[in-house]
Design brief:
about 220 residues; mainly alpha; two-stranded parallel sheet; two-stranded parallel ribbon; 11 helices; about 50% helix; about 5% strand; elongated
């Protein structure tokens, strides 16, 4: 069998240029080149994190790099700010999670977390490299005040706990009188909260429309 002529590559390029041959597919990057590119991206993320430790991750690639750099999110202890660093994690989802945590709910695996956040399991798989599932000490005292009953709290309590000015507090009371608030997303939509205010209110409220029954203490029976 005759060997290939040294002009074969040039001839092929001419035939491709004239449309007589289909173009060759682009060469796949070698494993070494892909590894080098991953290393560069990881170093760039490390520099960004050094400048801004609370940096929000943009995609699955940055989540992998953050995990390689040692960042972890403790699922059963993390606060709202940590959750909001994950790509695609919305404030209303974090609000739901924090409220469930306050009620004592703990997550032991990705499936539990996806159900608690009401997100597709594929979304949790993107976060999985940085997630850490570990039961928290149930005897540890809560660090934050209990959630405020947003649909029952008095104007005075709303101002004290939330630092609301008269105008915004009046707007909240008017909207609440029209219809009780259902969740954080409903609160944000009706009050037109700016993003920073919305994030500060994550996990701060209970949304029950009526308080539960309060039973009097049981007295001793007399014979």
């Amino acid at each position: 069998m005759a060997g290939r002529h040294w002009l074969d590559p040039l001839a092929r390029r001419l035939l491709v240029a004239t449309g007589q041959l289909p173009p060759l597919p682009p060469a796949a990057p070698t494993a070494l080149a892909a590894e080098a590119e991953e290393g560069v991206e990881r170093e760039l993320l490390a520099l960004k994190l050094a400048q801004n430790p609370g940096l929000r991750l943009r995609d699955a690639g940055e989540v992998r790099h953050a995990a390689a750099l040692g960042w972890r999110l403790d699922v059963n202890r993390a606060g709202a700010a940590d959750w909001l660093r994950l790509p695609g994690c919305r404030p209303e989802q974090v609000d739901r999670l924090i409220r469930l945590q306050t009620d004592g709910v703990q997550w032991l695996g990705p499936e539990d977390l996806a159900e608690g956040l009401q997100v597709p399991p594929g979304q949790v798989r993107i976060w999985l490299p940085v997630l850490r599932f570990q039961r928290r000490d149930e005897t540890r005292p809560p660090l934050d005040p209990p959630p405020l009953a947003i649909n029952q709290a008095s104007e005075r309590l709303l101002r004290e706990r939330l630092g609301l000015g008269p105008q915004r507090c009046r707007r909240l009371l008017q909207e609440r009188a029209r219809e009780p608030f259902r969740d954080l997303a409903d609160l944000q939509r009706r009050l037109q909260l700016p993003p920073d205010q919305l994030e500060r209110w994550i996990g701060r409220f209970r949304y029950a429309t009526a308080p539960g029954p309060v039973l009097p203490p049981a007295g001793r029976r007399t014979r």
